[in-house]
């Protein structure tokens, strides 16, 4: 047991998070609990606060503090973590991360290895062991990125770069992955292969938290849907109920037809 954590400790627990920018609430008293093993999609229109929520978890943004000093964000029950410990529990892949890595000109392998040191690049004081190298190569193989090991990450396509960053998160063998719009910019074939990879990870026990505005990306393993609107919790519950036509149409403010095919959902504008 890690730091008093057991299987009932929520993976993510957010208590009335408010994030202000220029006097505007990007998140407005948002409360949310995601259990371990509860594969979840976080769905919402543009500007609803999805990426802000991811930044909050990554600690790129800070919420207003509570008067009583209680924690706003808890990950596996705790609000303070050392980075290495946290990464073995929760891997985060966000669009900010992609932009930052593009500027490094590291190889794909070194990008994955840098994950062991909680740094963006490999420095002289970073001692890479054989075990780390093996794990990094395994993680790259896992996401089908073996041919990319020696490539400069700034030259990779969107889909290739996404795979490398997921490999970087996977070297820690995290229990959960938080993915912000992971399919943005992927062609249909690459997207399907990528979703198959997520399905496989879910079946092997990695809890998926998938942030998206595309219903089609909600893989069958995901059973729980959280809907955001204007920085607030709009609705949450079982996928079948959340993805009903009336609710989805209201969330995206446009009438939609929803179909279900092989466990996936498809939403079309009417
Ligand atoms: N640094 C900032 N300063 C001011 N406003 C911001 C800042 N970052 C985000 N916002 C605003 O906060 C709101 C929520 O943005 P956020 O990126 O979280 O939305 P999102 O749901 O991820 O949207 P999308 O689907 O378009 O990526 C938006 O209205 C956005 O304009």
TrEMBL record:
InterPro entries per the record? AAA+_ATPase, ABC_transporter-like_ATP-bd, ABC_transpr_CbiO/EcfA_su, ECF_ABC_transporter_ATP-bd, P-loop_NTPase
State a single Pfam family of this protein.
ABC_tran
Which UniProt key words apply to this protein?
ATP-binding, Nucleotide-binding, Transport
Matching Gene3D superfamilies: P-loop containing nucleotide triphosphate hydrolases (3.40.50.300)
Question: Quick check: keyword ATP-binding in the entry?
Answer: yes
Among its keywords, does the record have Nucleotide-binding?
yes
Give residue ranges for domain ABC transporter.
9-255
Q: What name does UniProt use for this protein?
A: ATP-binding cassette domain-containing protein
**Which CDD domains did the record assign?**
ABC_cobalt_CbiO_domain1
Q: Which GO terms describe its cellular component?
A: ATP-binding cassette (ABC) transporter complex
Query: What GO molecular functions are on record for this protein?
Result: ATP binding; ATP hydrolysis activity; ATPase-coupled transmembrane transporter activity
Q: Which organism is it from?
A: Luteibacter pinisoli
